[in-house]
Amino acid sequence: MLVPPLRMAPVNVWDTSKNHDRILQQMQFQPIGIDISRPKVILVDNSIAQWSVKEGKATFIEHECLVQNCIISDSVGENKHVDARLFDQNVLFSDDSLRKSLPKRTKDQVWIFFSLESPFATPKYAPIARLFNWTATYRQDSTIVAPYEKWATQTNTPLKTSSKNYASGKTKQIAMFVSNCHAFNERLEYARELSEFITVDIFGNCGGLKCRRGSKECHDMLKRDYKFYLSFENANCRHYITEKFFVNALQNDIIPIVMGAHPDDYKTSAPPNSYIHVDDFESPKELAKYLEELDRDDDKYNKYFEWKDTGDFINTKFWCRLCAMVNDAMKPTLVVNNLEQWWRGENICLPEGFDRKWINV
To answer: How far apart, in whole angstroms, are the C-alpha atoms of residue 337 and residue 354?
Structure first.
C-alpha cells in the first residue's frame, strides 16, 4: 500500500557537493510513495545496544519520525530482506577474513560507513573499494551528516546584550580536560606553552588536577569558576568538532578556545562569536595577551555570550533521516569508489608534526 507524499523532497537532500550539512532538509524529507506493506530493514553491525537504539520500530516511534516505515535489527532472520546495512568504523576492518566473509551487497541494498572518530583514530581502508554506498559521519560532505551537536539559529533573531554578567564570580582563568597526552596535533604542548603566560589548569591524565570525566561536579565547576576552556580536539581535521566544544564549553557558559577543525568549519557550525580560534593568533603568547584583556574587561568578555537566546541546539534525528532516505524510491545510486581517499585524502587533516595552523585549506 502506498502513502501519498506530504511534501516534496528538497533538491539538496542528496547533494553532498554543497558546503552545507543538509540536516534540516533531511529532517523534513518525506519521500514520495512509501510502500508501508513492507517496512525497510536496517541491519546494524555488532549489537543493537552498541548503537543506543531499540529493536524493531520503537526508535522511529519514540523519536517521532516523519517516516517510521523501518525496523532495526542486528541479525538476519529467516527470509528477512535487508534494505540497508550500517557498519561501525572498526567492526568490519580490523579482521581481513571477516571482511572477505561478508555476503555480497545486492543491487537493491545500501551499505553505509559510519564514524564519529577522526581519521587518525580509525583503521586504514585502502583494501576497501566500492563496498559502500553512503557515508554517515560528522563530515559535511557525508551522505548523512552526523555531528556531535547541531546549532540552529532562529530566523531574523539579532545578537543582543544580556543583562547577565557571565564573568561574575569566576575567579579562575583557563581549564582543560585531557586524558590523551600524545595527540597528533600536539595540543598539550600548546597548552603548556600557553601556561607560561596565563594560568591554565589541566585536569585528567595529563595534568596534576583531578575531576571525574563527564560528571556534573566537573561541569558545575567549569560554569562557576572558569572564564575559558581549551576545547582542543585530538586531531586537526575538517569538520571534526566534538563535545569538548559543544558540551564542555558552550553549554557551561564558558568561552571555548578551539583547536581542531578549520576556522571555516567553526563558523558554519557554532553560534556566532561564541569562541576563540587559536589560528587567529601568531603564538600562544599573543593569545594569552588577548585572554588577559578579556579577563580584565567584563563587557568585552560578555560579548562572547550575545548568541544566547538567538537559537537552539537541536536533535538531528539521525535514525529518522536514515529511515526516510532508505524509503526513497527515487534515491540515486551512489557508490564510495575509494573510502580511504575520501576519508583520509588531501587537505582532510593536518599531518602529525605540523605547525598547528590551517593555511589556505
So the answer is: 29
Q: Annotated catalytic sites, by residue?
A: 117
pTM: 0.91
Grid cell listed for 167: 564573568
Give residue-wise pLDDT tens across range 172-210: 999 999 999 999 899 999 999 999 999 999 999 898 899
**d(C-alpha 319, C-alpha 58), whole Å:** 11
DSSP-assigned letter for residue 320: H
Grid look-up 566473509 returns 101
DSSP H helices, 109-215, are 187-194
Compute the half-sphere exposure of residue 294: CA atoms within 13 Å on the CB side of its CA.
28
The string of pLDDT tens digits covering residues 50-83 is 999 999 999 999 999 999 999 999 987 765 789 9
Give me the long-range contacts of 204-212 (CB less than 8 A, separation at least 24): 204/177, 204/178, 204/179, 205/178, 205/179, 205/180, 205/181, 206/178, 206/179, 206/180, 206/181, 207/176, 207/178, 211/177
**Residue 219 CB burial class (10 angstroms; 0-12, 13-18, ≥19):** middle
Whether 253 contacts 305, CB under 8 Å: yes
